[in-house]
Amino acid sequence: MLIQFWILIVFAITVIFTSVAFASPFDSFENELKEYIDSESGQYYEGEDSQIKELFSPDEENADETTKSVGTYSRVSSNYKLPSHIQIARVISTTVIKPTTTVVGGYKVKSKDTLSTIARRYKMKVEQIKKLNGLKGDLIRIGQVLRINSTKTTTSTMAGGTIYKMKVFALPVLTGKTTSRFGYRRDPFNPSVRNYHSGLDLSAPVGTPVIASAEGVVEFKGRNGGYGNTVIIRHKGGYKTIYAHCSTTVVEVGDFVKMGKVIGSVGRTGTATGAHLHFEVIYKGKLIDPEKALRKIEIVTTKPGTTLANKS
């Protein structure tokens, strides 16, 4: 019995020695540090910590907007980053017209003309021309105006000016890549089916600016079924343009917009396989090929000394 008692004592001492000798010195340090921080932070840092938490807590008023972010693109920040207008050069070419003078009821003498050649041209006699113009001899000068009949000779001067050839519509996504054209195509959701594509698809990253293709008045802005976020603009001459699948829109119904005005940004709202703008052009109630509309030109003439009011 005594031997068993001593064996138990030796075993207990061995266990205690082993735990002390091989214990990690960092364990006790971490425990002491934790106890110190817990006691000190409650006393000194509680107020400051709550202020920091409040500073970095989400804004409740903008909580809904924050959840509208898609990937790295935020609907809130996108509107802020969009430019308000992109300058578009409408003028394709210019032609300067010089003033010209036209003689009515007479003939303006040109180089190498003689009274004989002029008389033959008009089936007259030289003496008739001399008598009508009070000429005593056969000498005439270049630029001289001769009467060739009994009608009084008058001159008409056409003022010069400048003729401008201008584009009517601009590409609504300047950096967009054409991925689908107007007309029949394979259905992107069911390749075995062919359907009619009513517009022009311009692929671009989400957030790329979308501009008004021509000046006009915003007729519609909002969600439009499979078209997603959509803007419709009414233009002069019976035209309308439609901008679909936008991520954001930054105009309102009734706004007057000029060519180049940023109206929204590229997205993939509605029924879309990827980020792009679906662009449609309507003329007098009928869909037309947007690419033909983009090639349409307008001729504008200005008088000398005046400038074109709307070059862009």
Textual characterization of the structure:
This protein has 312 residues and is of the alpha+beta class. Among the domains are: 81-92 and 168-302, Glucose Permease (Domain IIA) (Distorted Sandwich); 100-158, Membrane-bound Lytic Murein Transglycosylase D, Chain A. 27% of the residues lie in helices and 32% in strands. The protein contains 8 helices and 20 strands. The protein has helices spanning 2-22, 25-44, 46-56, 63-66, 75-81, 115-121, 126-133, 290-294, and strands at 91-97, 100-104, 106-108, 145-147, 154-158, 161-167, 177-180, 183-187, 190-197, 200-203, 209-211, 216-223, 229-234, 239-246, 248-249, 256-257, 262-265, 276-283, 286-288, 297-302. The strands form 6 sheets. Strands 7, 10, 12, 13, 14, 16, 18 and 19 form an 8-stranded antiparallel beta sheet that branches. β18 and β19 form a beta hairpin. The longest helix is centred in the first third of the chain and has 21 residues, at 2-22. The chain is elongated and about 170 Å long. The N and C termini lie far apart (112 Å). Residues 20-30 and 36-79 have low confidence and may be disordered.
Q: What is the helix fraction of residues, given as a range?
A: 25-40%
The overall average pLDDT, rounded, is 78
Low-confidence stretches: 20-30, 36-79
In CATH, the homologous superfamily of the domain at 81-92 and 168-302 goes by the name: Glucose Permease (Domain IIA)
In total, how many beta strands?
20
CATH class of the domain at 81-92 and 168-302: Mainly Beta
What is the annotated CATH architecture of the domain at 81-92 and 168-302? Distorted Sandwich
Series of secondary-structure elements, N-terminal to C-terminal: HHHHHEEEHHEEEEEEEEEEEEEEEEHE
Number of helices: 8
Q: Which percent range describes the beta-strand content?
A: 25-35%
